[in-house]
Amino acid sequence: MAQTLTASKDTMVRGDDPNRSDFGGKDTMRVDDGAPKISYVEFPAPESTGNAKLRLYATGADRLPFDVHVVAAGWPANVTHGNRPALGAKVGSGTVVHIGWAG
Length: 103
Fold this sequence. Notes:
Helix content is 0%, strand content 30%. The protein is an all-beta fold. The strands form three sheets. A two-stranded antiparallel ribbon has the order 1-2. Strands 3-6 form a two-stranded antiparallel sheet. The protein is globular and about 40 Å long. The model has no long low-confidence stretch (mean pLDDT 78).
């Protein structure tokens, strides 16, 4: 039976604005090819997970690749580029190819 999970928290860090920490709670997360950006999303862990599907909605038609990594729980309260959680194992990747839902 499919289960839809809503993110419990999110944030983003930017390499060109390393001390900024007010990205959490925005209605969009940038993953474009401008300044280096890393978006973080946390989901509540279900009882069991055989497979998981991350769906992204693209607002631009640029062909941009993305990777999905595991990150340890317990992020700092105000995540910045300097104190961001380390990226763990890569568990997926893809390329946004059109405006609309991907994944």
